[in-house]
Amino acid sequence: MEKETGRLEAFSDGVFAIAITLLVLELKVPQVAEHGAEPTTPALEASLLRLWPSYLALLTSFFTVLIMWVHHHIIFKLVRRADATLLFANGFLLLLVSVVPFPTAVVAEYLATPAASAACELYTTVFVGIAVAFYLVMMAAFREQTLDPEASAERVRRFRRDYKLGPPLYILAAVAARFSPMLSIGICTALWIFWAFTTGEC
Amino acid sequence: MEKETGRLEAFSDGVFAIAITLLVLELKVPQVAEHGAEPTTPALEASLLRLWPSYLALLTSFFTVLIMWVHHHIIFKLVRRADATLLFANGFLLLLVSVVPFPTAVVAEYLATPAASAACELYTTVFVGIAVAFYLVMMAAFREQTLDPEASAERVRRFRRDYKLGPPLYILAAVAARFSPMLSIGICTALWIFWAFTTGEC
Amino acid sequence: MEKETGRLEAFSDGVFAIAITLLVLELKVPQVAEHGAEPTTPALEASLLRLWPSYLALLTSFFTVLIMWVHHHIIFKLVRRADATLLFANGFLLLLVSVVPFPTAVVAEYLATPAASAACELYTTVFVGIAVAFYLVMMAAFREQTLDPEASAERVRRFRRDYKLGPPLYILAAVAARFSPMLSIGICTALWIFWAFTTGEC
Amino acid sequence: MEKETGRLEAFSDGVFAIAITLLVLELKVPQVAEHGAEPTTPALEASLLRLWPSYLALLTSFFTVLIMWVHHHIIFKLVRRADATLLFANGFLLLLVSVVPFPTAVVAEYLATPAASAACELYTTVFVGIAVAFYLVMMAAFREQTLDPEASAERVRRFRRDYKLGPPLYILAAVAARFSPMLSIGICTALWIFWAFTTGEC
After folding, report:
1. E strand or H helix that includes residue A79
2. Is the dihedral of CA D107, D111, D113, D115 positive or negative?
3. Closest partner CB to A87 (pick from B22, B43, B70)
4. I need a surface site. Which of A25, B73, C165, D159 has the fewest CB within 10 A?
5. How far separated are the first and last CA of chain D, in Å rounded?
6. What is the mean pLDDT of chain D?
7. Which residue, among B104, B115, B106, B100, has the nearest Cα to B178 in the 3D structure?
8. How far apart are the C-alpha atoms of B98 and A41, rounded to whole Å?
9. For chain D, which chains pass the contact test of at least 3 CB pairs under 8 Å?
């Protein structure tokens, strides 16, 4: 039975790859020449170091989206054909993935300021949305009309169980953002590292 | 009979995927530190909420372009080979699709201002152009030289009928923009939701 | 005999598609609120019309790069395998194609100013470079090591002859830029229209 | 034995192609109208020439990333299947490749200023990271689980030897940045030219 999801997967891969690469636009070249003075090497070095929230935000978003791409790939390997339901669940997921550079830029700008909580709330809310979208994509993918009949039932069952964890864990990160922005980013980081390791078992 | 449109479809997919992902660049990180004061969480939250025209514009453009991509896919499934006419009709379509982030950004900037009518006129005018381009692509695709001889005549006839509706409906949205910018965006939203459901039947 | 240029063509297509889509970033949302006054619909409409040099520059660059992509496609159809020479000729071409959004933005900014000559000189110089690069790619592609042995000799001969015209014609446009910027853009426009029609014959 | 790395290679190609094309965003349209005066052709020409650090930085980054793409291609030709280790080594490499436009923009901004050392330190440090990542990808790729059993042992051995040179050579460029920024960029340029020629032998 032929697989018909080639162009859908290629399109999704394109959106993942572009979103992940656009993250770099969030890194702004620091302006170090003050009041017409010449910029100096120590001043530029200091400015580049002060960009640490940008580096941290980029790192977290990059690997989270990369892991998502790997999971997207694994789910679609089990899909025989796409129907309208899967197409739109996937469209909702792509919308949120394509948007990731925005909350990333907001965190980069405000993580080292008193407005860090609001920035991290936005960031984690987008990822709650992505976790929900992933769950919907999986639900849409694993119906009789779309699932590859040769897919291992055990594996499908494990996905169904594991993906339920995504939304509550990101909601936890969103709640943490209110009290400790860094804890919130820390939970996001812990999550992609955790998923990276469990992916290895797939 | 071999299909020769692979590289053309892949290129078109690339333009669709990039245009859809570049929409995020329209979301500008709000600047909330006024007069050298420290930014605060309530101020940033309020600023993020005030960006609602940006979110609305992005949502409308994202799903409209996504549905278009699905339709582009469906049309080209019925095409056996591309000739120069189809190539240039498709080029005209890609030009307008690649341009979508611009009117989207204009709507995002001006929807909540007295200049909203001009912004929505630009936006809907681009989509009138896209609807015309889609009609031209379909006409070019469904000629004897290009159509897959095995394509269902009934299906081709239905496309021919349905695609005639696109341009007048977007012209309606353009006219509405003069009187009510929000109605104009509402019509655009209604259209992509409508097409999403009818796509499901294909 | 297997074709080994798939990944090279896909990579080149990616660069063409991204460069063509990044052109939209040159269209800047006009700022029409003066001195704290509310923006108005007539003011925004007037500003959008004043962007005509941006639209003209985008149109010219878009279709020129699109035609180039079509020609790139046609050349590589005749190639059996890529070697280092072809790889680097192609790399030089991709460098210049990826750079096109820059001279396009310069023309958009300065076409309606007294600095239009300098802008059009830059623009046409980049296209002289692209025409040279295309000639080099064709020369590298049509050597015994790389050419498909089944390629029609007549067709290869015609390419060899036609591609010699590219560099002198763009040099003409570059010289014209000194005297009349609009004539210079006009020659560029005439060239892509001409190539579009001759492509139809391939 | 089937090759299973198709989607991984396509995704990596996407990131390489996008990163290489985003380099153009570093070229900023010069603003030559001073104090409300009209811009003139000589002023714009002079401004465009003063952008030489941008052109040099773009050129160096473009060809370095292009050569890396070629090498990435060559390595993955020898890979039969990807496992989690290779996936994450490759993810680390893609992170650094996607980030290249940032140090490129920093060099473009500061190469002609007294802060050039800091800019070149950042630039070369990123490339030290990329050289290390490439070495890790190669190590991950050439394990028994992943290597194509038909890959030439001689060739694998030569890769193992050559790739050890990357990190120390870029560390040399990083050290040179302290004393002479131009020497540092010169070493980077020499390296991609050198790799371009040795690639030709592969």
Report:
1. none
2. positive
3. B70
4. C165
5. 24
6. 87
7. B115
8. 41
9. A, C
Task: Yes or no: say if A119 and A110 are a contact pair by the CB < 8 Å rule.
Answer: yes
Q: Determine the Cα–Cα distance for residues B25 and B165; give it in Å rounded to an integer.
A: 31
Sequence-distant (≥ 6) Cβ neighbours of residue A37 within 8 angstroms: none
* Other chains touching C, judged by 3 or more CB pairs under 8 Å: B, D
Pairwise CA distance, residues C131 & C188, whole Å: 12
pLDDT band at A1 (very low <50, low <70, confident <90, very high): very low
Joined tokens for residue B152 = 């269902």
Distance CA A7, CA B5 (A): 13
Between the CA atoms of C168, C90, B7 and C164, what dihedral angle is there, to the nearest 10 degrees?
20
Residue pLDDT, tens place only, B60-113: 999 999 989 988 888 888 888 888 888 889 999 999 999 999 999 999 999 999
Q: Answer yes or no: is pLDDT of A120 > 70.
A: yes
The larger pLDDT score, comparing residue C97 to residue D74, is at C97
Of B18, B91, B115, the CB nearest to C63: B91
Confidence of residue A202 (pLDDT cuts 50, 70, 90): very low
**Helical segments of A78-165, H only:** 84-99, 101-110, 116-141, 153-162
Encode pLDDT of C14-52 as tens digits.
Answer: 999 999 999 999 999 998 876 667 888 988 999 999 999
B180 backbone dihedrals φ, ψ, rounded to 5°: -145, 100
Range list of H helices, chain C: 6-22, 41-50, 52-77, 84-99, 101-110, 116-141, 153-162, 166-179, 181-199
CA gap D75, D166 in Å, rounded:
15
Picking from A9, A15, A18, A20 by the largest number of D CB atoms within 10 A of its own CB, the best residue to mutate is A20
Residue of B nearest to A118 (CA): B41
- Closest listed residue to residue B85, CA positions, set C197, C65, C194: C197
pTM: 0.90
Distance CA(D66)–CA(C97), nearest Å, equals 14
**Exposure string for A99-123, b = 16+ CB within 10 A, e = fewer:** bbbbbbbbbbbbbbbbbbbbbbbbb
C21 to chain B: nearest residue by CA? B98
pLDDT digits (tens, 9 = 90+) for C81-96: 888 888 889 999 999 9
Contact B60, B193 (CB under 8 A): no
Structural tokens at position A107:
């965190």
CB atoms closer than 10 angstroms to residue A2? 6
Helix (H) / strand (E) element for A77: namely helix A52-77
- Please report how the helices D116-141 and D181-201 are oriented relative to each other, as an axis angle in degrees rounded to 10: 30
Structural Rg of chain A based on CA atoms: 19
Chains that contact B by 3+ CB pairs under 8 Å? A, C
User: Is a pLDDT exceeding 70 seen at residue B201?
Assistant: no
Amino acid in the structure at residue C91: G
For the purposes of burial, counting CB atoms within 10 Å of the CB of B166, is it exposed (0-12), middle (13-18) or buried (19 or more)? buried
Per-residue confidence (pLDDT) for residue C4, from 0 to 100: 64
pLDDT at A201 (0 to 100): 45
> Going by C-beta distance under 8 Å and a sequence separation of 6 or more, which residues neighbour residue C118?
C110, D41, D42, D44, D45, D48
| pLDDT tens track for B114-160 | 999 999 999 999 999 999 999 999 888 887 777 777 777 777 787 77
How far does the CA of residue B9 sit from the closest CA of chain C (Å)? 11
Contact between chains at D39 and C121 (C-beta distance less than 8 A): no
What's the rounded mean pLDDT across residues A154-169? 81
